Amino acid sequence: MAALPDFRLETYFSRWEFSARFHLTASDAQSLPMSELLAMADDDGRERWESLALGYTETRGLPALREEIARTYDGLEPDDVMCFAGAEEGIYLAMRVLLEPGDHAVVLTPNYQAAETIPLDLCTVTGVALRPEDGWALDVDAIERALRPETRLVSVNFPNNPTGAVPDPAAWERLVRLCDERGIRLFSDEVYRGLELDRPSLPQATDLSPTALSLNVMSKAYGLPGLRIGWIACRDRAVLDKLERAKHYTSICNSAPSEILALIGLRARDRLLDRNRGIVARNLPLFADFFARCPDLFDFAAPQGGCVCFPRYAGPDGVEAMCTSLVEEAGVLLLPASIYASALTETPADRFRVGLGRLDPEPALDAWSNWLEKQG
């Protein structure tokens, strides 16, 4: 662990997430009260909850939960799924199982920091940047140019955190084919899948490839981060066997209550995703109007998927100073560009992350607007 750098996002959140008055950079959709989630339970889910004994659970996850997760893919079986304590454990263990010294990995940027720093701790890594001037489009040619004979892994995240980018389906399927043809594992972080408003969700990587890994979690699109239940789906069961043995050194098994609640949530997934898409759809005009009132300061584009985006700030003080002053003086929390700075590629220094998935953002936007007026 000493070799890993500070996790900038979590360090920043440790300072501000629960002390700031307005969390306007939340990466998850609005969570539900326990009572509302339990009200969605079918008879089996309710009986499981009421009769639950608080013992250890299976390392790979509750069989009924893995069965329900498998139903979210095309033709997968429960044995193609392994559950983890959130998505971060899945990322951490997958990178340590799939990579070793002498290997090479390609990581798309900007991205969740662990997708870059964990591979860098293990092997040589090349970054390929999504570029704002291209609308954050997936550049498969750039990824292909970055490949080497020793490349073992390509890691991507769509809908992207923090940009909200979703690639063209043809480009996405070309990337999957490229990895398969070269014998390279594709690690696909798909935690925001299901929050697209104006386009269908991309096919999941593991539905397109016999070796790809698809990562998902109850935290983001489903809006249930407190459950700490994530999973990796992969049709190569030998990889899941290795992940199981690796998990014996971390969480060992998941929380029994969380697994039952995740099962209830997944069985009600259409209701949850419809609800959370509705929140984003209601919020988008509010944010668009806010940024449109300050065209000299902000350049805003709605996310193509997910509930976060990466607007540009053009103020003379710079985005880092703006974010710091805003949270200290007005209690409005944003994530500045430095949180997403990459050691591999140039990250735009004038961006900040905004979250669009929480209910009632108007008080936060009002506080931000009042702060801007005081700045002159």
TrEMBL record:
Signal peptide: none annotated. Keywords: Aminotransferase, Transferase. Gene3D superfamilies: Aspartate Aminotransferase, domain 1, Type I PLP-dependent aspartate aminotransferase-like (Major domain). Pfam families: Aminotran_1_2. Residues 54-356 form the Aminotransferase class I/classII large domain. One of its GO terms (molecular function) is pyridoxal phosphate binding. PANTHER family: AMINOTRANSFERASE FUNCTION, HYPOTHETICAL (EUROFUNG). This is Aspartate/methionine/tyrosine aminotransferase.
